[in-house]
């Protein structure tokens, strides 16, 4: 009975069916570090772009207000 199927310890213990080599573990860690550093770079680029967009929008609104204000001053005189 007990010899027909491997025990739980054989399957999941160190060196069992589901065990990973040290190389596989280090490869997975390196892959996750690459993903997180890429995510950090993407986040920084997105933040910089958002700041530039906000600044550009503010400049455009100020320019538009000044043009409309000048037009109203000329029209009312």
Summarize the structure.
With 77 residues, the protein is an all-alpha fold. The protein is built from two helices and no strands.
Secondary-structure content class:
mainly alpha
Strand content: under 5%
Number of domains: 1
- Helical stretch tally: 2
Instruction: Name the poorly predicted regions.
Output: none
- Rg, please? 32 Å
In whole angstroms, the N-to-C terminal distance is: 104 Å
Average of pLDDT:
75
Q: What's the overall geometry?
A: rod-shaped
According to DSSP, the number of beta strands is 0
Order of helices and strands: HH
**Helicity, as a percent range:** over 70%
Q: What does the largest sheet look like? A: none
Question: What do these coordinates show?
Answer:
78% of the residues lie in helices and 0% in strands. It has 77 residues and is mostly helical. The mean pLDDT is 75.
């Amino acid at each position: 009975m007990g010899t027909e199927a491997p025990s739980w310890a054989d399957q999941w213990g160190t060196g069992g069916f589901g065990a990973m080599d040290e190389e596989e573990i280090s490869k997975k860690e390196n892959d996750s570090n690459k993903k997180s550093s890429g995510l950090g770079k993407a986040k920084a680029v997105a933040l910089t772009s958002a700041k530039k967009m906000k600044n550009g929008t503010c400049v455009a609104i100020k320019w538009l207000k000044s043009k409309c204000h000048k037009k109203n001053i000329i029209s009312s005189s």
